[in-house]
Each structure stands twice: as structure tokens, then as C-alpha cells.
Description:
Blueprint (H helix, E strand, L loop, with lengths): L2 H7 L10 H32 L4 E7 L2 E6 L4 E8 L4 E8 L10 E8 L2 E6 L2 E3 L1 H13 L5 H4 L2
Antiparallel strand pairs: 1-2, 2-3, 3-4, 4-5, 5-6, 6-7
Amino acid sequence: MGWVTEKFSDGLPVDASATAPKEEQTFEATADKTWTQLTSGFESDVAEINHREGDADFKQLEAHQARMSSSVTKMAVVVTADLIAHTIQYVYEPEDARVAVPEQGILTMRPAASGIELYSADQRLTSDEARRMILEPLFFVNPPLEATGS
């Protein structure tokens, strides 16, 4: 028996679009929880940076947008979740005209048996790994030349 026959024997309708809105609502609710956990992690990471004498800031800009910044590197990153598109975009911004910033990136949110999984390209990331990938260039790069005394 082929996979098509198995699908029909599972009782799935040929036109699955009738169930898509409910599945999408479930996805969005789960993705919203994933976003909340991610931003809580960002907030904790920023607090830890500040505890270690860093000068970092976390701001929740909108329901699905947060901004983290560092006065040491003179950069910020804006992270925005688009639950409908199943993506999380991060964009680095210079806070000084002489500062070069990394390229922007995107994570995809994919449904899984355990909830939502985050991916960068086709690499699965934990929440910790995703936060590290986004925040490491912001907090752990060489400071601008004028800050080093050169």
C-alpha cells in the first residue's frame, strides 16, 4: 500500500483546506508561546550581561517585536516574529555611523510533535542556540576602534 492509500485510509479529507484555519490558529497560539519564551530568554541574557558589568538594554517594542542594544559595541538588534509567515527576523542596527553591523537573518518556526521548532536554514536550533546566534554578534565582538584607545 502506498502513502496516498494510507492517507485515504486514515480518513483525511482530500481537501484539507477545511481544517487549515483551525490548524493555523493552533500553530499561532503555540508560536506565540515560543516567542514569549524567546523574549524572556533575551531579557534574562541582557540582565546577565548587565550583571557582568556590560551595558545592555532590552525593550519590548510591540507584542511580537523586541530590541536589544549594547552601548559597548554601539549596535542594536531588532527581532520581530511574524506568526502568520512562521518566521522570526532579526536586523542589526548601528548606533554610531562608523559601526559596521552583521547582516540580518531569519529563523523559521516549524510545527513539531513537541510544539514549535526553530530553524536557521535547515539547522534546528534550541531557544538557547537561537538567542546565542542573535545576541553573540551584539555583545561579543571587538569594540569600535575609538573605544579601544587606538
